[in-house]
Amino acid sequence: MVRSHGLSAGNVVTVFWSCLNASGLLQTVIGHFIEWNKGKASAERLLPVFSLDEEEIFVNSIGLYPGQISEKLNQLGWNSPSTTSFSTYAESVKDLANYYGHIRFTDVIFSYPSRSELVLTGLNMELESQQTTFVLGRSGSGKSTIASLLTKQYKWQAGEITIDGHGVDLLSKNWIEKNVYVCEQMPKLFDIPLIENIKIGSLYPEDVSEEDIKVALADSCADFVWDLP
């Protein structure tokens, strides 16, 4: 059409870019339309929840009416936190000379002191000795809480946690720290040399040498750490 003088070159370029812009805008609109439909579908699932009163929502979330909680705790033999603490067991704390590491959670109920909602609502779980067990769940489902309770960082409100049949609440804090280890994904390091950090977590810190650390870093493909200032 340019050759036949039907359109100028400028008009052709203008039409071409207009089509590109229109196509880009259409793609944007389609993306928003998809998200709008997702939101609409989610809203339809939430509408029945809005019609529930607070008590019904509570029941659906943990399976207990507010009035049933004290009854449930009594069934599990739980006493009020105001009268039960680790100091209550001061005379009966003990260490295990021989152990296999069989861990059991029985009807454990727990909520953090700063929160009202329950994190664990009657947890029952068994961790066999000399086996690797994976605990899977979404963020906030209580995976880290399980480790915190096992290491006596918090006192659970009801239920029982045992190691080889011995209640964790009856085991001394010193024994727990020496025999139960938690390896976090993002370990915390003190502002001291790396070798000193490793010695802190070692059962035999006096035997840790720089050569041991070099080998450990090389095995984990992190030997570059040794060259850091």
From TrEMBL:
Q: Where found, per UniProt?
A: Membrane
Per the record, membrane topology reads: Multi-pass membrane protein
Transmembrane among keywords = yes
- Source organism superkingdom: Eukaryota
Q: Which GO terms describe its molecular function?
A: ABC-type oligopeptide transporter activity; ATP binding; ATP hydrolysis activity
Q: Where is the ABC transporter domain?
A: 120-192
GO biological process, alphabetically ordered: oligopeptide export from mitochondrion
Asked if the keyword Transmembrane belongs to this entry, the reply reads yes
Q: Which GO terms describe its cellular component?
A: mitochondrial inner membrane
- The primary location reported for this protein is membrane
Q: Could you tell me which PANTHER family the record lists for this protein?
A: ALPHA-FACTOR-TRANSPORTING ATPASE, ATP-DEPENDENT PERMEASE MDL1, MITOCHONDRIAL
**Record-given protein name:** ABC transporter domain-containing protein
Identify the taxonomic lineage of the organism of origin.
Eukaryota, Metazoa, Ecdysozoa, Arthropoda, Hexapoda
